C-alpha cells in the first residue's frame, strides 16, 4: 500500500519578457522623474508664481511657441541638420585619428615618450583659443569648424584607449607572443578586445565633447547651426530662442549618447561586471 503523498503543483512560469516589462517601466519612470520636476519648477517660477521676468527666463509655453514657429518656418530643421553634419564629421575624424595614435602610443614606450607629453599639453588648451588660429590657417568655411570639433573628440578617445591598452593583462600578451602572433594580430585579437570597454567609454565622452565644441566651432563666421542660433538669440535679446537652442542641443546630445550606450551594451554583452544594486 502506497503512502499518501502530498500533491505538489508547479508554480506558473512567467515569461522573461513579462518580468522585464515592469522593470523597464520603472527605469523609464525614474529617468523622467527629474526632468518632470525641473519642468514643473520652471512652470511655477515663470507662470504660476513668477519669480523671473520673460526677458530673464521665458516660460515653457513661450519656448514651445517659439520652437513651433522655428520648426514651421524650416529654420530649426536647417540649424539642426547643419549641426548634426558638423558633429558627425568632426567626431569621425577625431575618433579615427585618436584610435591610430592611441594604439601606437599604447604599444610603444618610445612613441609614448616622444608624443604623449606634447599631446597632454595640447589637451589643456581651451577650445576658444583655437578659433583665431584656425581662421588664420584655414580661412572661413566648414574646414575650421569641423577641425575644432575633431580636436574636441580626439582627446577623450585617445586618453581612454591608451589607459585601456596599458591595463590589458600582461599574461594575455605573453600568450599571444608564445603562439607566434604578429603585432597586427596581437592588436586585433588580444589588445583591442581587452581594451574595448575603455574605447567605448572614450567614444561616448568624445561624442559629448564634440557637441560641446560645436558652439565654439559655430562662432567661426557661421550662418547656420544651433551654436549660431544660440548666439543670434543672445545678440537679439531673445532668450526664448536661446533656450530652444540649448534644449535642442541637450536632446540631441542625449540621443547620440543613448545610441552609443546601446552599442556599448551589445558589444560588451560577454562581460560579467558589477552593474550597481
Molecular structure report:
The protein has helices at 16-48, 60-73, 75-107, 109-123, 127-138, 142-166, 170-178, 183-217, 226-235, 239-267. The protein is mostly helical. The chain has two domains: 22-51; 56-267, MetI-like (MetI-like fold), CATH 1.10.3720.10. The radius of gyration is 25 Å and the shape is globular.
Derived from helix and strand composition plus strand pairing, the structural class reads: mainly alpha
Main beta sheet: strand number and arrangement?
none
Percentage of β-strand residues: under 5%
Run of helices and strands = HHHHHHHHHH
The CATH architecture designation of the largest domain is Orthogonal Bundle
The CATH class of the largest domain: Mainly Alpha
Distance between the termini: 53 Å
Q: Please report the total strand number as a whole number.
A: 0
The mean pLDDT is: 86
In short:
The protein is built from ten helices and no strands.
Strand and helix map with partners:
Blueprint: H1 16-48, H2 60-73, H3 75-107, H4 109-123, H5 127-138, H6 142-166, H7 170-178, H8 183-217, H9 226-235, H10 239-267
Helix pairs in contact: 2-10, 3-4, 3-6, 3-8, 3-9, 5-6, 6-8, 8-9, 8-10, 9-10
Notable characteristics:
2 domains; 78% helix; MetI-like fold; mainly alpha; 10 helices
Amino acid at each position: 500500500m502506497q503512502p499518501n503523498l502530498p500533491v505538489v503543483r508547479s508554480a506558473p512560469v512567467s515569461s522573461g519578457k513579462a518580468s522585464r516589462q515592469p522593470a523597464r517601466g520603472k527605469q523609464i519612470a525614474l529617468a523622467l522623474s527629474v526632468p518632470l520636476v525641473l519642468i514643473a519648477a520652471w512652470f511655477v517660477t515663470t507662470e504660476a508664481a513668477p519669480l523671473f521676468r520673460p526677458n530673464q527666463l521665458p516660460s515653457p509655453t513661450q519656448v514651445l511657441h517659439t520652437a513651433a514657429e522655428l520648426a514651421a518656418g524650416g529654420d530649426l530643421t536647417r540649424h539642426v541638420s547643419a549641426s548634426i553634419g558638423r558633429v558627425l564629421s568632426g567626431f569621425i575624424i577625431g575618433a579615427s585619428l585618436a584610435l591610430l595614435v592611441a594604439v601606437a602610443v599604447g604599444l610603444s614606450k618610445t612613441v609614448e615618450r616622444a608624443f604623449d607629453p606634447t599631446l597632454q599639453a595640447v589637451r589643456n588648451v581651451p577650445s576658444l583659443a583655437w578659433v583665431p588660429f584656425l581662421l588664420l590657417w584655414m580661412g572661413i568655411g566648414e574646414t575650421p569648424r569641423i577641425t575644432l570639433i575633431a580636436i574636441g573628440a580626439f582627446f577623450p578617445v585617445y586618453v581612454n584607449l591608451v589607459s585601456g591598452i596599458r591595463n590589458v593583462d600582461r599574461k594575455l600578451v605573453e600568450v599571444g607572443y608564445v603562439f607566434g602572433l604578429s603585432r597586427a594580430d596581437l592588436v586585433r585579437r588580444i589588445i583591442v578586445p581587452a581594451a574595448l570597454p575603455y574605447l567605448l567609454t572614450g567614444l561616448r565622452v568624445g561624442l559629448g565633447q564634440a557637441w560641446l565644441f560645436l558652439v565654439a566651432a559655430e562662432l567661426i563666421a557661421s550662418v547656420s547651426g544651433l551654436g549660431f542660433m544660440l548666439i543670434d538669440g543672445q545678440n537679439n535679446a531673445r532668450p526664448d530662442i536661446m533656450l530652444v537652442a540649448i534644449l535642442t542641443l541637450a536632446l540631441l546630445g542625449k540621443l547620440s549618447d543613448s545610441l552609443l550606450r546601446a552599442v556599448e551594451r551589445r558589444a560588451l554583452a560577454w562581460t560579467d561586471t558589477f552593474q550597481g544594486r
